[in-house]
Amino acid sequence: MDNSLREFSTAQKIVLENIKPVPDETINLEESVERITAESICCQHPVPAFNNSKMDGFAVRLEDAVKGQKKFLKISGESAAGPGLPPELPAGTALRIMTGAAVPDVADCVIKIENCEVDNDRVKFSQQEIHSGLNIRRMGSDMEAGEVAVAAGHRGSPASLGAIMLTGQSQLKVHQQPRVLLISTGDELVRKAGKKLKPGEIYDVSSHSLPAFVEAAGGRVVDQLQLPDDPRKSLKRLKRLQVDWDIAVSTGGVSMGEYDYTLEIFEQLGGQLEFHGVRQKPGKPLAFGKLNEKAVLMLPGNVVSSLVNSLLYLGPAIKKAAGSREFRPEFIQLNCQEEFPKTGQRLTFFRGKTVVEEGIISVKPSSNQQGSHILSSLTTADCLVKVDAGKQLKRGDRAEVMFFNHQL
User: Fold this and answer.
1) Per-residue pLDDT averaged across 294-310, rounded?
2) 1 falls within a domain
3) What is the rounded distance in angstroms from the CA atom of residue 12 to the CA atom of residue 16?
4) Domain that holds residue 29
């Protein structure tokens, strides 16, 4: 066993402790989906702002509603949804009302139209149970004035966009999207999709999958570099780089091969290495350090290792930098539908697929092949299954599962 390797939990802690939050900015409400709020947003007035009807029917005083069960009441007028105050409701009468229309202050309840018998300008009720507040949306029943509508650190959604609009605000403060610099290494890599490969060449899958991952996590790619297997040329190009970034991510060149120069170049640039190697599978060669006090994550070149480590380290780092309250991956427990391969001397993250049978959710391997080069094991998966070193999960065993179907 290599005692120089970091444990997964320690490595993740080191990465996240070295992530600094990015500044905030003010944006329009329409731009807020997927952005992280930098401050809590409070309601400026009660929501709803006035008592209104839940449905079409008749607004009445409670005592008149009881009388209306036995005899007809005069229809005094009508209240429709729209601007303006509702009509008066004289005692002993009922007011025709539409869904969303303002309810007169003296009205105690609304009898829905299905329980009303209308005879010209009179109405009688067949409603059996009548009580104060029936079918009325009370002012402030959703949010009171001054109440927090959306808390700081919330990731914007269509629902939160609507909630912010209800507060009366058209703009809000959010954290800027963390700027991510992506670097790939290797003379064998071909970035252009669809290009015919020469012998020895492979497609640079990470140059397409990682930008998509960064965006899904809430970051923004500011540049993508492809460096050759020549440390002098690579170092020269990096020194000429003039782009501001918050997190740098490289793929490849962190193993022990003769052409693995990433760590050497990192140190020549003045980088401070925090760790190199994690006792996990896939993704063992992962390295992390700081350059000019900014985070640098060095991922293995194998695309599965790269994406698994992105889920475990890069995604949480971007989310923390962006101000999210919930940035650490969460594992839940599910039963195994099938057995998983036995692990070796490292913590293993198997790619899993959840299955629902008779309303019960369980998990199984997404593929019989779980190698770090088997990308199909990820494309058919919706979760990672964490298994300790030297263990094997059998059918019916409890497994620790991390869902990622919204990220990959």
Assistant:
1) 95
2) no
3) 6
4) 24-47+141-175
